[in-house]
Amino acid sequence: xxxxxxxxxxxxxxxxxxxxxxxxxxxxxxxxxxxxxxxxxxxxxxxxxxxxxxxxxxxxxxxxxxxxxxxxxxxxxxxxxxxxx
Length: 85
Fold this sequence. Notes:
The chain is α+β, with helices and mostly antiparallel strands.
């Protein structure tokens, strides 16, 4: 999907702990994945904005995504270093 949609090749994939989020009328279960990637095309042609995780916290992002970044994501969670980002 990433290669077809955004011309991005996945180098490594690490599954993070599931996140459970309760809305008024339904429950959401998210299975986040931490990826390291390589661009193989011009991703600027797509209607997407790419941000570093901590820069995303300064934006209006959904609460479940904010929880993943603040409480789950750390560079060492999948044996990666800060330089991998």
